[in-house]
Design a protein that fits this description.
395 residues; single chain; 44% helix; four-stranded mixed beta sheet; binds pyridoxal-5'-phosphate; Aspartate Aminotransferase, domain 1; Aspartate Aminotransferase, domain 2; 14 strands; alpha/beta; seven-stranded mixed beta sheet
Amino acid sequence: MKRDPLALEESLAELERGLLKRRRATLATLNAAAEWPSVSVDGRRAVDFCSNDYLALARHPDIAGAMADAAQRHGAGSGASHLVAGHGVEHQRLEEELAAFTGRARALLFSTGYMANLAVIGALAGRDEVVLLDRLSHASLIDAAVLSRARLKRFAHADAAAAERVLAASNGTAALVATDGVFSMDGDVAPLVELARVSRAHQCWLVVDDAHGLGVLGASGRGLLEECGLDAEAVPVLIGTLGKAFGTFGAFAAGATDVIELLLQKARTYRYTTALPQPIAAATRQALAIAAREPWRRERVLKLARRFSEGARQLSVPVMASATPIQPVLLGSLARVLRAQEELLAAGFWVTAIRPPTVPSGGSRLRVALSAGHSEDQVDALLEALGRIIARLPP
Ligand SMILES: Cc1ncc(COP(=O)(O)O)c(C=O)c1O
């Protein structure tokens, strides 16, 4: 785009005309621990049904307390990158705890899941090698593949046979297969057992980004890998984020010692950025401990997800097939999804409209995200409002 105010104006006007312009809502609470999931959304009171705070830990007072304590001891900021002077005791302990939690030799912290994905794909895929991604992979995996300068190939969503066909056609040039564990906008899960088999058969890395599965799925909350009975041999590289079920911020990659050492030595999103503040690492350690000793959080959010999906079917609310806390309601057109979002807010529910390019064209949806912090009454009230509002939407 040229440096021309008219070109900028036209670009923004085009988004507006296409119903694709995003507007941020400002959320506020006075005492989050006591109030959430009730929040003020641009001054209107509503129940938050679109945060990824699946275990209701983001506003937990003990986690906020751990953050405040660590800020007193270590400071609010880390001051430098990990390889210079930014790596502190809280980072070190958290990495050790994450390695133990995921059953892997080592874990490495990143400031965001986006950066962890850039690091892993960039380190493991060489220029001109093939990187295979599920068609609905998170944007950060796609960007990672593009930045790695490997050749990006995509396979049909959640279809391991399709992945195998692409691998076979790649004549040994494929370096890795990567996928979300739980798909962030769909709530369904990757066929990990089959993907592990085909990746191994073709001598490729399998990288799983289980941002939305960790903490929630599996007998002890170790995510989709635990649910599928897959060990570190089957899935050599696991990526997790800390800003979703664990309620804080940041991310990690976990794997064998050499893989993690390679990331530490080479990943540009590790080397050339300031380390996550230690108070966040301390808060995350507290969150991991609470999640481990309070399995009711996991059980409760999954129970609420079942309640929502069964209730939606009964009310003819077009919920997508998902057994996770992500329960998208597929409305198709931009006009329908925006109208539904507005009417839900007026009825006291905050559920953001998800539109292209985040989802495919014609796939606009309300991404309902459940949390252990919701009550059954709140879920039932949301269902009732959805049923009523959707029945009146234009086709
Ligand atoms: C599957 C997946 N991977 C990675 C990310 C990025 O994580 P972060 O928000 O920590 O950058 C997200 C969402 O934000 C996600 O849904």
